[in-house]
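Our preliminary data section would be incomplete without showing what the modeling component actually yields. Below, a chain of 76 amino acids is followed by its predicted structure, encoded as tokens that our downstream tools consume directly.
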Amino acid sequence: MKELVEVIAAALVDHPEAVVVTETATDKSIVLELKVDPEDMGKVIGKKGRIARAIRTVVKSAASKDDRKVIVEILQ
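Predicted structure:
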């Protein structure tokens, strides 16, 4: 899941080298924290959060096989 978020975020931003994804796993869930350059925050979140919601939907769909909940957090 970590690689999926990295690829999606790197394709959206102007500074792909600044994309950092950290993964924290527990028994029932995986938390992915996405950090990007401050100038690129708007591109990752999108108008009214549409891009962020789309990223979460894609990751959730990809994780449905593992029977684990995946949470994507976008940090500043």
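Strands lie at 20-25, 29-35, 69-75. The chain is about 40% helix and 25% strand. Preliminary results of this kind motivate Aim 1 of the renewal.
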